[in-house]
Amino acid sequence: MEYTQLNIPDVILMEPQVFGDHRGFFMETFRDDEFKQKVVHTTFVQDNHSKSSQNILRGLHYQIKQPQGKLVQVTSGKVFDVAVDIRKSSPFFGKWSGATLSAENKKMLWVPPGFAHGFYVLSDEAEFTYKCTDYYAPEHERSILWNDPSIAIDWPIIHGASPILSQKDIDGVTLDKAEVFA
């Protein structure tokens, strides 16, 4: 596994070694001892799997209590994945890191606790899996607007079309009005 720090050093892009031939491929997608040594010493308690269609944007989500670190990957299709640092004490507060994740490139992204997370579907469909460091707690979930100008994420929106959003994401708040971490 290759581990690459992005422009925010706590956000890590992971690229597994893939062994393949005409029959298919094999790769390790997670190894606890190596992850703890190379990324962070943590425990994952919940795995999630979602499916979305092209032009769907999910995020920017986080839990203000029970913050979740997420190890995300795409098992089918392609997405643009984003992590936004919302730790007020961080020198990277309000900055974002992004990467294209796909079934083809097999890359994964570590989104630490204290970050808002979102993704935009670039392919016809995408299946997205993620390991979480804490349990889902809907009462603590918050949403920051995907297009907050103070964050200025450079989303690769297809043909300039408006992304498809949930009501929760439409109702998201700007970073200056959001509950953030100390």
What would you note in describing this structure?
The protein has helices spanning 32-38, 167-170; strands at residues 2-5, 12-15, 19-21, 24-26, 46-53, 57-63, 70-76, 78-85, 96-102, 108-111, 115-121, 125-132, 141-143. It is mostly beta strands and 182 residues long. It has a single domain, classed as Jelly Rolls (Sandwich), CATH 2.60.120. Strands 1-2-10-7-12-5 form a 6-stranded antiparallel beta sheet, with no helix packed on it. A 5-stranded antiparallel beta sheet has the order 9-8-11-6-13, with no helix packed on it. A hairpin with a 6-residue loop joins strand 1 (2-5) and strand 2. The longest helix has 7 residues, at 32-38. It is globular.
Entry summary:
The protein has about 180 residues and is mostly beta strands.
Structure summary, number of beta strands: 13
Structure annotation, total helices: 2
CATH topology: the name is: Jelly Rolls
State the strand order across the main sheet.
Answer: 1-2-10-7-12-5
Q: What string gives the helices and strands in order?
A: EEEEHEEEEEEEEEH
> How much helicity do the residues have?
under 10%
Q: According to CATH, what is the class? A: Mainly Beta
Count of discrete domains = 1
Unreliable stretches (pLDDT < 50, length at least 5) are none
Radius of gyration: 16 Å
Question: What's the CATH H-level homologous superfamily?
Answer: Jelly Rolls
Query: How far apart lie the N and C ends?
Result: 32 Å
Measured by DSSP, the beta-strand proportion falls in 35-45%
The description of the largest β-sheet is: 6 strands, antiparallel
